[in-house]
Amino acid sequence: MRVIAGTARRINLKTPDGLDTRPTQDRIKETLFNILQFDLEGQDVLDLFAGSGALGIEALSRGAKRAVFCDAARQAVLCIEENLEKTHFKEQALVLPGDYNGAINSLLRKDYHFGLVFMDPPYGRELAEKALLRLKDKPFVDENTIFVVEAGLEEDFSAMEEEGYTILREKTYKSNKHVFLRLIRQENEK
């Protein structure tokens, strides 16, 4: 796996060993970032369930300002740190070891505003839905934030529309999909 484009183009990234992490294939990552190409420049990016950190690193390489990486697996955290060192993005990054709840709590005490949130949790455990519910009223995201969830083909996010999100689009591949969501703020919340 490698960085596809930008300042760190062609740098190979390490991936954590084991079956718990599914690195996003280069072809799928390229498609994803072609969709997001006009939404990256100068943004803060949150990479939840980050694995190797490849999505956040790709965003940094393509012009994102800063990235926060979160993963509960110690091996993944070490891998992210090594990849940040290799790509020279350590100064633009914050790595939060632990689960998404801890990361969200920690971010409440930090100065970030995310234009883009990536989530690539283990499939079939509704972790993305739970994370979306936890994120929806936080001050570091708003109606301009794009949430990108990598999910199994059978996973359905239509219930998120009742929780204050709108589905912008779904991009389906052979074995998985990306779901793009945005928050809908009510007038009385502004």
Q: Could you describe the 3D structure shown?
A:
Pfam families: Cons_hypoth95. It comes from Oribacterium parvum ACB1. InterPro entries: DNA_methylase_N6_adenine_CS, RNA_MeTrfase_RsmD, SAM-dependent_MTases_sf. It is a single chain. This protein has 190 residues and is an alpha/beta fold. It has five helices and seven strands; from the N terminus they run H-E-H-E-H-E-H-E-H-E-E-E. It has a seven-stranded mixed sheet, sandwiched between helices.
Write the layout of secondary structure elements.
Blueprint: H1 26-36, E1 44-48, H2 54-61, E2 66-71, H3 74-87, E3 93-97, H4 100-107, E4 114-119, H5 127-135, E5 146-152, E6 165-172, E7 176-183
Parallel strand pairs: 1-2, 1-4, 2-3, 4-5
Antiparallel strand pairs: 5-7, 6-7
InterPro entries: DNA_methylase_N6_adenine_CS, RNA_MeTrfase_RsmD, SAM-dependent_MTases_sf
Protein name: RsmD family RNA methyltransferase
Keywords: Methyltransferase, Transferase
Summarize the structure.
By secondary structure, this protein is an alpha/beta fold. It has helices at 26-36, 54-61, 74-87, 100-107, 127-135; strands at 44-48, 66-71, 93-97, 114-119, 146-152, 165-172, 176-183.
